[in-house]
């Protein structure tokens, strides 16, 4: 039997060598040629997962028998896998998604085995599918989009884009499980250019299937004075970029994507105005979160940003009592960190507009300061002064409103 390093580990190291990048290569994956399941088990490997994949008994690295795959049904599940010991390294590499992911390395000599010219594609910064087997796994449409978001200087080969469109148009993406789609989306959100992920999915007609509520935003106009970029889809991508610049949290980036979903359902006769889009957006955020089974913190932040982002933008003009109501609605007393994330997302919304990128967002400073000062007010002082029952809450609220008013007085109104 022979073993080779494969996949992301080889790709990342070759990128560093050929392009001078400094990617920390992830865990090592191995492919085993000329062996069998029983031989692997005899050597102490443990079998994991559905495919002939094993874990090394000591270091727990993944070792997989070389295999070929043939599609037998729709979507991701219908596969016939052949892992007989005669499957060659080249055959195994040919079933892999992209040429840059289809290289192997001999661990003894360091030699790179590169039958599909992955090195050349790295040098030319091209994401190119390895073989016709690409279409056999629809998840690859999302993977390519994710790699485009990660390696943002790379372009997708035109012939690969054609294959991606073909997969989307054939309805194959509908067979992907929500878990796999969600995993790809959340991991794309942690890349440096997540907006590229969504733009690529749009380009190959996949976004309409994967996330129709988001896709609906392209072509929906906004009033030009607030949105020189006009299109809500373009605006949303700009907000995502700003959110990415301001924070590494994927919850914030997800909320940025969801904040204007309501604009996609504004009645045509009301355009380009979007009254009540914050409320109209709420069920669409819920639908999106249900579909992707997002963890609760994603849903909570996205709903709050969707409903209250305009309140944040208008903070300098709002009455102090309205600001206090906003704080109560946002539950800032119990969730101060979520409130910070809310403010960052609102700032991203304000800056994610053509020509507005460098504008200050004093609203966040005001609200941030106001919450911190309001948090210092507690019942103790009022109890000591003989106030009881319901009146305590009222006294706390009154004091908080006065504090907010004093802070507002110190803030300049925007021009
Ligand atoms: N749908 C898939 C998933 C994986 N692979 C192959 O399996 C390897 C390992 O997959 P995985 O660990 O999921 O991804 P990586 O390419 O290592 O990328 P990442 O850094 O995102 O984990 C890939 O390089 C690729 O050769 C594939 O061809 N098609």
From TrEMBL:
Its cofactor is Mg(2+). Residues 232-333 form the HD domain. SUPFAM superfamilies: Nucleotidyltransferase, Poly A polymerase C-terminal region-like. Pfam families: HD, PolyA_pol, PolyA_pol_RNAbd. The keyword Lipoprotein does not apply. Keywords: ATP-binding, Hydrolase, Magnesium, Metal-binding, Nickel, Nucleotide-binding, Nucleotidyltransferase, RNA repair, RNA-binding, Transferase, tRNA processing. Belongs to the tRNA nucleotidyltransferase/poly(A) polymerase family. NCBIfam families: PRK10885.1. This is Multifunctional CCA protein. The lineage of its organism: Bacteria, Pseudomonadati, Pseudomonadota, Gammaproteobacteria, Alteromonadales.
